[in-house]
Amino acid sequence: MVVASVISSAVAIGYRARLLGRGYARLFTELYIPAAGTLAVIYLTPLPLFPYSTASLIDAVATFIPNAAVLAAFTAGLLLAFSKPAREATGILFKRIMRIRV
To answer: CA angle 10-16-20, nearest 5°?
Structure first.
């Protein structure tokens, strides 16, 4: 599944690069390379997660939610650390959220 995702992403990125030419270089270096680095770190780093339980539906959900939260926080942190556009987008999102709440 990971290999299929890598192949389909590479084909899509290659097609965009062909269409956009040199204008694509900035997007590629600021967004796609950090995203690829984040995915590589996630797949190569073993994360200490709670063991999944399949005894009942409630146990399965109770172990899935904390694992999903840990993975989401780890992924978001890595992407924000590696990608300037991701940091800018997150800042804009937080400003809009704060404007709505006030």
So the answer is: 145
- In 1-102, which ranges are E strands? none
Task: Quick: pLDDT tens for 65-82.
Answer: 888 888 888 888 888 888
CA 34-40-42 angle, to 5 degrees, is 105
- Give, in degrees to the nearest 5, the angle at Cα 96 between 92 and 102: 145
Q: Shortest CA distance to 71 belongs to which of 35, 37, 43?
A: 43
Helix (H, G, I), strand (E, B) or coil at 51: coil
Residues in the chain: 102
- Going 73 to 7 to 9 to 14, the CA torsion angle's sign is positive
Q: What pTM did the predictor assign?
A: 0.56
Structural contact between residues 68 and 101, judged by C-beta atoms closer than 8 angstroms: no
